[in-house]
Amino acid sequence: MRALILGCLVVALVGGCYAPEIAACQYSCPDGECPDGLACNEQKMCAATATTRCTPLTGCGWPGISNVDPCAANIAADKVTTDWTISTHVSVNTGDQGMQNQMLDMVPGGLVRAIVTQGDGSEVLVIAVQNLRVTGGDNGSLFVNGSRPLILLANGIVEIDDGSITTVSSALDGPGCLNGRGGNGFDQTAEVGGGGGGGGGFGPRVQSNASGAAGGFGAFEGGFVPMGSTPGLLEPGTETLVPLRGGCPGGKGGRHESGTAGEAGRAGGAFQLSAKTSLSIKGIINAPGLGGGNAFDRLSGGGGGGSGGAILLEAPTITFVGGALLCANGGGGGAGGMHPNLSTSGLCDVPIFPGQAGGDPTSSKSTGGGGATEPSASEPGFIGSMAVGATEVRGGGGGGGGLGRIRLNGMLVGTPSLESPRASLGTLPAPQ
Q: Does residue 69 share a domain with residue 40?
């Protein structure tokens, strides 16, 4: 019993942590206040009997947070006092805890940062602020890239007011992408076109548009090579986005012996925004898969588009104001056989546009496939001999990337103007 009492005393003195589900305990209440109506006694202690548990409030001053325990990471809420207002272009590299200042913005020096290991062993970068505001008056935007997901913790409020947050992965093989990565196109020799790379996938989802699409076959005179790249499959994961991870990249196009194939499209990154008080969004949060590269010669294949990434938002109240956009669309596949029109990532706008495929379907060159949106599935790349009006052998087009995932934990007020894919809904996690 003495050990239990001491345990309660210790956590109470370091930021208001209270021990849950123990038979009896007491903790100090120097301010005279106790949770759940428990009385502060003459010894300035909140006492609980064997039939009254000590109620868990917030760990080190934080509510429950997905994917990270701020107490274990030594991020007590009372250490987080610096506001961060983003009013121009700022980028964060999650690979080294670094921040790059662009234009006139100055990143506050008092931001608390830590690299934390998730339950599956993968790492995330955590940045804690008091209040976060992204303003659009001067094109305020936060661009996140790197090998780790980013978790932004706000000890107060978050306002995304006409500004934007965009996250992409810099790693060709992010955590959890063993099977989700699009397959590479087959290399070829002689007068035979290389295959297009497959689009990256993300999952699992009930909808078929979570997986990437296959790349197009390479062609030879009078036919095509029936060896296509595989699409990115539905990689294991959960709709709760615990653990937090980004999407999976596309596959590289098949190279002809003397040429240069299209590069794989990078995947959308993983971004979590957890606010202690409230979260208000009027702007854009986007985790797009990027488009696959076009081939640089007639006989090489285009690269597959990357899948969309992951967006996790949580707060007691999440408010969407008119114009709020949430997107994690797949990137378009690159063109095979050399074409000046490049593929793109999916635009986060109304009306929605999928990731545009490289090439031109009215030309004689094989195009890539479009990336996935809600509710459209990704498209396969064109076979090298299927291009309209084709008179010579071409490499295949890359497949489009699959959809990512969006998760909202908390009470919702209003709805986004665009939500692609459709978000899954949950409640705030219990304090740790």
A: no
In terms of Cβ atoms closer than 10 Å to its own Cβ (0-12, 13-18, 19+), residue 44 is exposed
Give the tens place of pLDDT for each residue, 189-215: 666 566 666 666 665 444 445 556 666
Task: Confirm whether 56 is domain-assigned.
Answer: no
pLDDT at 27: 47
Does one domain contain both 128 and 26? no
Is pLDDT of 13 > 50? no
Residues 219 and 287 in one domain: yes
Overall number of domains in the chain: 2
- Per the listing, tokens 């589900």 go with 21
Q: pLDDT tens across 137-153, in order?
A: 667 899 898 888 999 99
Same-domain pairing of 94 and 212: yes
Q: Look up residue 336 and give its amino acid.
A: G
Residue 255 token pair: 């190279």
Q: 55 lies in a domain? A: no
The most confident of 9-23, 156-170, 383-397, by mean pLDDT: 156-170
Q: What is the C-alpha separation between 263 and 214, in angstroms, rounded?
A: 15
Domain end (from 10, 25, 48): 48
Long-range (24+ apart) CB contacts under 8 A made by 223-226 are: 223/385, 224/193, 224/383, 224/384, 224/385, 224/386, 224/396, 225/186, 225/188, 225/192, 225/193, 225/195
Q: Are residues 147 and 88 in the same domain?
A: yes
| Phi, psi for 42 (deg, rounded to 5) | -65, -25
End-to-end CA distance of the chain: 22
Report, as an integer, the average pLDDT of 57-73: 82
- Could you tell me the residue range of the domain that residue 388 belongs to? 62-432
Query: What residue ranges in 36-169 does DSSP mark as E strands?
Result: 45-48, 84-86, 89-93, 98-101, 112-117, 123-129, 132-135, 141-146, 150-154, 157-161, 164-169
Q: Are residues 67 and 136 in the same domain?
A: yes
- For residue 344, being part of any structural domain is answered with yes
Beta strands 123-129 and 112-117 are antiparallel
Q: What is the pLDDT of residues 310-349, one digit of tens each?
A: 999 999 999 999 889 999 998 888 888 777 777 777 778 7
The DSSP H or E segment spanning 284 is strand 284-286
What is the pLDDT at residue 348? 84
Q: Is 57 inside any structural domain?
A: no
Contact status, residue 343 vs residue 289, Cβ threshold 8 Å: no
Do 170 and 31 lie in a common domain? no
Q: What is the pLDDT of residues 236-261, one digit of tens each?
A: 567 899 999 888 888 888 887 778 88
Sign for the pseudo-dihedral over CA of 336, 342, 345, 349: negative
The answer on 34 and 71 residing in a single domain is no
